[in-house]
TrEMBL record:
GO terms for molecular function: enoyl-CoA hydratase activity. InterPro entries: ClpP/crotonase-like_dom_sf, Enoyl-CoA_hyd/isom_CS, Enoyl-CoA_hydra/iso, Enoyl-CoA_hydra_C. It catalyses: a 4-saturated-(3S)-3-hydroxyacyl-CoA = a (3E)-enoyl-CoA + H2O; a (3S)-3-hydroxyacyl-CoA = a (2E)-enoyl-CoA + H2O. GO terms for biological process: fatty acid beta-oxidation. Could possibly oxidize fatty acids using specific components. It is an enzyme of class 4 (lyase). Its EC number is 4.2.1.17. Keywords: Fatty acid metabolism, Lipid metabolism, Lyase. CDD domains: crotonase-like. Belongs to the enoyl-CoA hydratase/isomerase family. This is enoyl-CoA hydratase.
Length: 257
């Protein structure tokens, strides 16, 4: 499969997708999102793939939705075409997904990064939801996910002013899990994804489901959901192997990998 707006690579058990529209600062247009969804579908179905890294270039993750494409959108186009529906595919990707963000992650770019399970940021990363400056609002989950990541006060401030925050501030407020030196961002993201991909895939998927349910449900229901998943772990060969390996003082070799 050849792509024009993304670059797709496989690194062992890790699928890597690079957003690649350098002249438009990786602005996200319909064609790019279509390709991204195709690549996600392929990695989803590929049993060799245990984790995903989504990245941009060293200068920009993505400067948001393609404003030139959106400029002429009418309400009827947006409503009847259910604009943005297709942007959500990443949030349904069931395997662990890491966003490796260098440079700008703005608007839809920040929203795409937040659809991943966690964000690793290069020192030069800059995050923001500047839609208000264009006379629109975040439309791919930005108001909802940002508020859950960083809390109401900062989400309000960022979305209402459209200002950018740097990597340090993003780490302090919980938007990113770690800051990595810019020159080693991709290497570190791949190393982290490979470590995750070496674990039991069904267990990693259950962990992802459980943590995500913490944002969708009550504590009591969430704990119950976790317990059911915990019980189910004992039906896997990977639990037998993981515990046997610990007791025999050897590295685990998970079956579902
Ligand atoms: N869309 C289209 N083109 C863009 C975008 C964009 N979002 N961002 C940059 N570009 C283009 C510029 O037009 C320019 O093209 P050209 O060379 O042809 O003039 C080129 O990329 C380089 O950009 P700049 O010259 O502006 O580069 P700077 O380094 O000076 O500035 C910035 C970098 C600060 C990132 C600046 O480009 C900028 O502010 N970009 C817009 C950021 C923005 O407002 N993003 C939000 C977009 S709206 C959105 O994301 C809504 C999401 C909801 C989903 C909707 C789906 C239907």
């Amino acid at each position: 499969m050849s792509y024009e707006n993304i670059i797709v690579e496989v690194h062992g058990a890790v699928g890597l997708i690079r957003l690649n529209r350098p002249k438009a600062l990786n602005a996200l247009n319909t064609a790019l999102i279509r390709e991204l969804n195709l690549a996600l579908g392929a990695f989803s179905e590929d049993p060799q793939i245990g984790a995903l890294v989504l990245t941009g270039s060293e200068k920009v993750f993505a400067a948001g939705a393609d404003i030139k494409e959106l400029q002429t959108l009418t309400y009827m186009d947006a409503y009847l075409g259910d604009a943005i529906r297709t942007w959500e595919r990443l949030s349904y990707f069931r395997k662990p997904a890491i966003a490796a963000v260098a440079g700008f992650a703005l608007g839809g770019g920040c929203e795409l990064a937040m659809m991943c399970d966690f964000i690793l940021a290069a020192e030069n990363a800059k995050f923001g939801q500047p839609e208000i400056k264009l006379g629109i609002l975040p439309g791919a989950g930005g108001t909802q996910r940002l508020a859950r990541f960083v809390g109401k006060a900062k989400a309000m401030e960022l979305c209402l002013t459209g200002r950018m925050m740097d990597a340090q501030e993003a780490e302090r407020c919980g938007l990113v899990s770690r800051i990595v030196p810019s020159e080693s961002l991709l290497e570190e993201a791949l190393r982290t994804a490979k470590a995750i991909a070496s674990m039991s895939l069904p267990i990693a998927m259950q962990i992802k489901d459980c943590i995500n349910s913490a944002y969708e449900t009550t504590m009591t229901e969430g704990v119950k959901f976790e317990r059911r998943n915990f019980h189910a772990a004992f039906a896997t060969q990977d639990q037998k192997e993981g515990m046997a390996a610990f007791i025999e003082k050897r590295p685990a070799k998970f079956v579902n990998r």
